[in-house]
């Protein structure tokens, strides 16, 4: 083990995570949640067409590998004349993937809210849309925090796939240093350790958020 290399490469890996992995994950998660909410509402809609489209989208996303989705967007679309740079390609692929999985989480959270809450909103004159926004979604959001937090942590790890389309993030940095130094085992173990630390920090943040919200969730 070249411990001098391990020390000198540590900061570039952390920097790759802070400037690449985390921003990529945050952007993808934010866009994915917007898409997931839309798809969840489509799945719950009484409109058969909207519900069918939502169901088909979830089925395709959950039934195909993330790597294939990423490659279709970055390498496949240019064949039909649509070329997207690496960073936007990664964000689009990860957002679509998050949307498919988070949609089911949000749908289940909405369904977990007692039917009486809808009826209460209707009783005081609220429309279905207003009741959804003012009564149902706030309760569903609290319920969905733990599984959505787990989705984000998984996304941070999955973002390493972006290195395959030349996005400079944590794992890409490790690959470049390893190719130059020929210390592949050292750099890949070091990269794994940095991912682990990132996930530990995120898990600790998740636990704190859950504890703060736990008092508001009915058991």
From TrEMBL:
Where located? Cell membrane
- Write out the similarity annotation: Belongs to the binding-protein-dependent transport system permease family.
Q: Which NCBIfam families match?
A: HEQRo_perm_3TM (TIGR01726)
The question of whether Cell membrane is a record keyword is answered with yes
Alphabetical UniProt keywords: Amino-acid transport, Cell membrane, Membrane, Transmembrane, Transmembrane helix, Transport
Task: Tell me where it mainly resides.
Answer: membrane
Question: Per its record, how is this protein called by name?
Answer: Amino acid ABC transporter permease
| Gene3D superfamilies per UniProt | MetI-like
Where are its TM segments located? Answer: 20-44, 56-77, 185-205
**SUPFAM superfamilies, alphabetized:** MetI-like
Domain ABC transmembrane type-1 intervals: 18-206
Question: Which superkingdom heads the taxonomic lineage of this protein's source?
Answer: Bacteria
* Isomerase found in the keyword field: no
Question: Which InterPro entries does this entry report, sorted A to Z?
Answer: AA_ABC_transptr_permease_3TM, ArtM/GltK/GlnP/TcyL/YhdX-like, MetI-like, MetI-like_sf
Q: How does it sit in the membrane?
A: Multi-pass membrane protein
């Amino acid at each position: 083990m070249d411990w001098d290399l391990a020390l000198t490469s540590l900061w570039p890996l952390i920097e790759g995570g802070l400037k690449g992995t985390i921003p990529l994950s945050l952007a993808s998660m934010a866009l994915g949640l917007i898409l997931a909410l839309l798809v969840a509402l489509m799945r719950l809609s009484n409109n058969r067409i909207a519900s069918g489209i939502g169901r088909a989208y979830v089925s395709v996303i959950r039934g195909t590998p993330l790597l294939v989705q990423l490659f279709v967007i970055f390498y496949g679309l240019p064949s039909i004349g649509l070329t997207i740079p690496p960073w936007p390609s990664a964000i689009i692929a990860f957002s679509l993937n998050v949307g498919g999985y988070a949609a089911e989480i949000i749908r289940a959270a909405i369904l977990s809210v007692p039917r009486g809450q809808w009826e209460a909103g209707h009783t005081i004159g609220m429309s279905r849309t207003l009741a959804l926004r003012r009564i149902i979604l706030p309760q569903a959001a609290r319920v969905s925090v733990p599984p959505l937090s787990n989705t984000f942590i998984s996304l941070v790890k999955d973002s390493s796939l972006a290195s395959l389309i030349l996005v400079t993030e944590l794992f890409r940095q490790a690959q470049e240093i390893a190719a130059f130094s020929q210390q592949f085992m050292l750099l890949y173990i070091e990269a794994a350790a940095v991912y682990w630390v990132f996930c530990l920090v995120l898990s600790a943040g998740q636990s704190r958020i859950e504890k703060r919200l736990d008092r508001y969730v009915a058991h």
